[in-house]
Amino acid sequence: MKHKFSLGLCSLLLSSTAYAEVNISGFASVVAGQVLEGSGVAEFDLGPTFLADYPLVGAYDEDISFKPDTLFGIQFSADLLEGLTATAQVVSRGADDFSASFEWAYLSYEINDHWTVQGGKKRLPLYYYSDFFDVGYAYPWIRPPADNYTWQIFNYTGVSALYNYLIGDWTMSGQVYYGSEDSEPNKLLSDFFFLENTREVWKDIGGIVVQFNKDWLDIRLTHMQYTNERYIGGIQQEWNGSTQRSGKFYGLSVNIDYENFLFLSELNRLDLDGSNLDTYLLTFGYRIDSVMPYISYSDFNEGKNLEVHHTSSVGIRWDFHPSAAFKIQYDDVKDDGGPGLKIAGDSKSISLGIDLVF
């Protein structure tokens, strides 16, 4: 059913302009990197590794590689008139052997100047940069900090309602959404954690995003809850005697873009059946004409002697072209997880590349 829907939407988007005005845009990142030194995780027979992209297992080792962060994307948007539009986004990633897949495929209907309803497949709007996760040109780093942007599920299929209002000098925007996702095989769990086919199911995903913007200040709050089922090697996993567990996600980001100064922050908590998992990131940047050096710190903490890791990064972004930016970044990862809970060990890595939009 999913393939028929995608094929039908593509046919609609690429049909004659007598029926719709079709806009095509794109983005790309060409990035190379390698681990300079690292401890790896001996108990998992894992050599020096930097896990740059958790959801897609984009991992660097001591050999130079272009695959983990390199990607190409095309977005089609068809205006069907009278407030109805259709959007599809196809992305090919090096971390997924450059196989092309639909990341977005949805219909939108503009009810009025303030509300738009959508239905189909979209990015799960957990984090500030979730909607732009694949568009490297939209943020300062080589990639969003992996300690923070780390979940195994990053899309959902369902419905959402977007809103936008002016409140004095402030713009208030956001969305409410509901849907589900069934990922098999789930790449992160199958290829990296359990090393066998794993099906990850999130049901009854429901959430709300509220964002306030005024001049140089941007504040975003988000909440989501869901029910989780998991099958490892065809066998349903249990947690404390139950085949389901419930999660509640809370997030706050405060971003400042004032004159030459840039400050980005995100603070998140996942309450997973009473156990708290906390992540946060802080980034400071300063523009000098078309060049912006930056420093960043991100942290993942599931509790003492559990999964704990953090990354310190320094980098430079150079906007050498109106539609392209060159970046270079150094990442120092400390993996302080308890026995059997280290992810990839400590590592020091370098990566550089070009992000562009067209």
Euclidean distance between termini CA atoms? 32 Å
Radius of gyration: 21 Å
CATH architecture: Beta Barrel
Shape descriptor: globular
User: What structural class do helix, strand and pairing data support?
Assistant: mainly beta
Keywords: Signal
Signal peptide: 1-20
Protein name: Porin
Question: Which helices and strands occur, and which strands form pairs?
Answer:
Elements: H1 2-13, E1 21-38, E2 50-53, E3 58-60, E4 71-79, E5 84-93, E6 100-110, E7 115-123, E8 155-167, E9 170-183, H2 187-193, E10 198-214, E11 217-232, E12 235-236, E13 245-258, E14 261-272, E15 275-286, E16 291-301, E17 308-321, E18 324-335, E19 347-357
Antiparallel strand pairs: 1-4, 1-19, 2-3, 4-5, 5-6, 6-7, 7-8, 8-9, 9-10, 10-11, 11-12, 11-13, 13-14, 14-15, 15-16, 16-17, 17-18, 18-19
Protein name: Porin
Keywords: Signal
Signal peptide: 1-20
What does this structure look like?
With 358 residues, the chain is mainly beta. It has one domain: Porin (Beta Barrel), CATH 2.40.160.10. Helices cover 5% and strands 59% of the residues. It has 2 helices and 19 strands. The protein has helices spanning 2-13, 187-193; strands at 21-38, 50-53, 58-60, 71-79, 84-93, 100-110, 115-123, 155-167, 170-183, 198-214, 217-232, 235-236, 245-258, 261-272, 275-286, 291-301, 308-321, 324-335, 347-357. It has a 16-stranded antiparallel barrel. Strand 16 (291-301) and strand 17 form a beta hairpin. The longest helix is centred in the N-terminal third of the chain and has 12 residues, at 2-13. Mean pLDDT is 94; it is low at 1-13. This is Porin. Residues 1-20 form the signal peptide. It comes from Shewanella septentrionalis.
